[in-house]
Amino acid sequence: MHREPSDPVTIGRILAPHGVRGTVRVRAFGSGRHLREGVEPFVAERRRRILRSRSTPKGFLVDLDGIESREEALELRGQEMLLDRTELDDPDEEEYYVGDLIGLEVVSGSGETIGRVTETFETPAHEVLVVRGRGGESYLPFTREHVPEVDLERGRILARPPEEA
């Protein structure tokens, strides 16, 4: 029996099959360091061991135990790859899991609330935080210049939006 994660963290999303042998293309959430051989994420409500993984410019190519054809891989399209928080590697200093940033309050240097992080997306240069506040939606580059402080315990991010930096 496979117990589902009690505190699930998404480590990637299966985008599409790759080739004819069951390999899937995966968008990693974060660095992708958990998309490695031997890790057993939940995929479509069951554990599937990663047999092989390699990084490419278009994402990771991952071979999962039990997926041996393009048709089987196609059935996994759109599925998230989940681990329980207790299975994650500890983040390095000044490194954060994307999921931990969602919902944090974003405040300016003067203490004014700008909004809350509602989602993130990755660019070739860095992660971008989507902040929703009274003024609508704005984008905040997740860089030291624009986000000099993250306080997970207080649930806050100190921000210097691009127009203020």
Descriptive account of the structure:
The chain is mostly beta strands. It is 6% helix and 43% strand. The protein is built from 2 helices and 13 strands, in the order ββββββαβαββββββ. Strands 4-3-7-1-2-6-5 form a 7-stranded antiparallel sheet. A hairpin with a 2-residue loop joins strand 3 and strand 4 (46-47). The N and C termini lie far apart (52 Å).
Q: Outline of this structure?
A:
With 165 residues, this protein is mostly beta strands. The chain contains two helices and 13 strands.
Task: Set out the fold topology.
Elements lengths: L7 E11 L4 E6 L13 E2 L2 E2 L2 E7 L2 E6 L5 H6 L4 E5 L13 H4 L3 E3 L5 E10 L4 E7 L2 E6 L7 E3 L4 E3 L7
Parallel strand pairs: 8-13
Antiparallel strand pairs: 1-2, 1-7, 2-6, 3-4, 3-7, 5-6, 8-9, 9-10, 10-11, 12-13
Helix-strand category: mainly beta
Distance, first to last CA: 52 Å
Report the principal-axis shape.
Answer: elongated
Main β-sheet description: 7 strands, antiparallel
Seen as an oligomer or otherwise, the chain set is single chain
| Arithmetic mean pLDDT | 92
Helix share bin: under 10%
N-to-C SSE string, H for helix and E for strand: EEEEEEHEHEEEEEE
Record the strand order, biggest sheet: 4-3-7-1-2-6-5
Q: Got a strand count? A: 13
Instruction: State which percent range the strand residues make up.
Output: 35-45%
Rg from Cα = 18 Å
Tally of helical runs: 2
Flag low-confidence runs: none
